[in-house]
Design brief:
Elements (H helix, E strand, L loop, with lengths): L4 E3 L2 H8 L22 E10 L14 E3 L2 E5 L4 E6 L5 E6 L23 E3 L2 E5 L4 E6 L5 E6 L9 E3 L2 E5 L4 E6 L5 E6 L6 E3 L6 E3 L2 E5 L4 E6 L5 E6 L20 E3 L2 E5 L4 E6 L5 E6 L7 E2 L3 E5 L5 E5 L5 E5 L11 E3 L2 E5 L4 E6 L5 E6 L10 E3 L2 E5 L4 E9 L1
Parallel strand pairs: 1-15
Antiparallel strand pairs: 2-34, 3-4, 4-5, 5-6, 7-8, 8-9, 9-10, 11-12, 12-13, 13-14, 16-17, 17-18, 18-19, 20-21, 21-22, 22-23, 24-25, 25-26, 26-27, 28-29, 29-30, 30-31, 32-33, 33-34
Length: 398
């Protein structure tokens, strides 16, 4: 089992919730401007909730939308399908058992879903905090198979071809047969840092290759058919005077735009890498533990102080930065039309203009932290907080 210190923003979020910032190493969040005037109108289409959400687990549970259906999970064993347009429940399954008669799903008793669901066709796969992967029918939630892996699954699986591929907290990648759950291959990172951020970015599958950011600050490419490593590229050097300074986890998801990969690492760099060869195209110093977002011309990121940045895609030059949300412990960004969307530690959702970073709109989903990167599908963005509340929002100009 991987031996490491789990560092998570959950502790910071908890402090923020009770407004306790007496410790010198915890910065208070920047207050929101009271005279803020939005320049774009936000319409909330619907809001619902899924169990207890991620709770205090530190997982970034994020829903997924496939063919007009939103799928979501929670650490207290809820798995749901919701009409993405209207928010109406299509089906809901609970793995919890209750009372003397043990109502619930005995095959998935008290499953602590944490990886977020992945869906392809009629197959839904999801991982758990106690090291299991469950596959169910996406049409109604009926069980198909389950397997045990070596450690917790904090990232969403990826379903590609006839494989379900998952990452575990001890540095392994498992490829499972999508029909049966049988193990096809395992990639073992080998030595993993004793000190690591809690969480893993989701795997990216493209052109027969799997890409991910590793716990030691590298961008890694594996063959999809057998798990053999094709190449790796450093996103962080791991240098520093203390163990904390040398912490260099690449905790966000890797992006692919055309044939170029984008990734970032804590205490490291934002990097653009040629996907087929692994050759670096450019790097820019940038410390982040969140996933990135990309538009036609820019790459957007949130650094480790929750300052929002935009970089030119071609060479990595700074385009703008906005520190109005500094220390509000933002989620990773998403791009919704001409706006960048982020959530913060107090349940606010913020829209910034992609062109200059100016704040354009603000809505409040809840009073709880939004840690998962918002999900944009078409003209709608879906946002989930740590207690499982999900809101759907659409923009329209004044």
């Amino acid at each position: 089992m991987k031996r490491f210190l789990l560092i998570t923003l959950a502790s910071l979020v908890a402090l923020a919730g009770c407004h306790s910032f007496k410790k010198e190493n915890v910065q208070p969040p920047t207050p929101l401007a009271k005279d803020f005037k939005p320049t774009v109108q936000v319409t909330r289409l619907w809001r619902t909730s899924v169990g207890d959400g991620a709770g205090t687990s530190g997982a970034r549970l994020r829903p997924t939308v496939v063919d007009g259906v939103l799928y979501a999970a929670s650490t207290d064993g809820k798995l749901v399908a919701i009409d993405a347009a209207g928010g109406k429940s299509l089906w809901s399954k609970s793995s919890r058992t209750h009372g003397w008669f043990g109502w619930g799903d005995k095959k998935r008793k008290d499953a602590q879903y944490a990886g977020g669901p992945a869906v392809s066709g009629d197959l839904l796969a999801v991982g758990t905090l106690d090291g299991h992967v469950y596959a169910v029918n996406a049409k109604d939630g009926t069980p198909r198979w389950d397997v045990e892996v070596s450690s917790e699954v904090l990232a969403s699986p990826v379903i590609v071809g006839d494989l379900v591929v998952v990452r575990t907290g001890d540095g392994r990648v498992y490829a499972l047969d999508a029909a049966s759950g049988q193990r096809r291959w395992v990639y073992d990172q080998g030595t993993v840092p004793l000190l690591s951020l809690r969480g893993n970015g989701s795997l990216l599958a493209a052109n027969g290759v799997l890409f991910f950011g590793s716990d030691d600050g590298k961008l890694v490419a594996l063959r999809q058919d057998n798990g053999a490593k094709l190449w790796e590229q450093k996103l962080a050097s791991g240098e520093g005077r203390t163990e904390i300074d040398r912490l260099n986890d690449a905790d966000g998801a890797i992006l692919l735009d055309g044939s170029t990969l984008y990734g970032a690492a804590y205490h490291g760099n934002l990097a653009a890498v040629d996907g087929p060869s692994g050759r670096p195209l450019w790097t820019h110093p940038f410390s982040s533990f969140e996933s990135l977002a990309v538009s036609d011309h820019a790459v957007f990121g949130v650094n480790d102080e929750s300052v929002v940045w935009a970089f030119d895609k071609n060479g990595g030059a700074d385009m703008w930065k906005n520190d109005a949300l500094k220390y509000r412990w933002l989620s990773g960004p998403a791009v919704q039309g001409n706006y960048v969307v982020v959530g913060d530690l107090e349940g606010y959702v913020h829209w910034l203009q992609t062109g200059d970073g100016a704040l354009a709109a603000r809505e409040r989903l809840s009073k709880k932290a939004i840690r998962a990167q918002p999900l944009v599908v078409g003209d709608t963005v879906y946002v989930e907080d740590v207690e499982g509340r999900i809101g759907a929002y659409r923009l329209s100009s004044h």
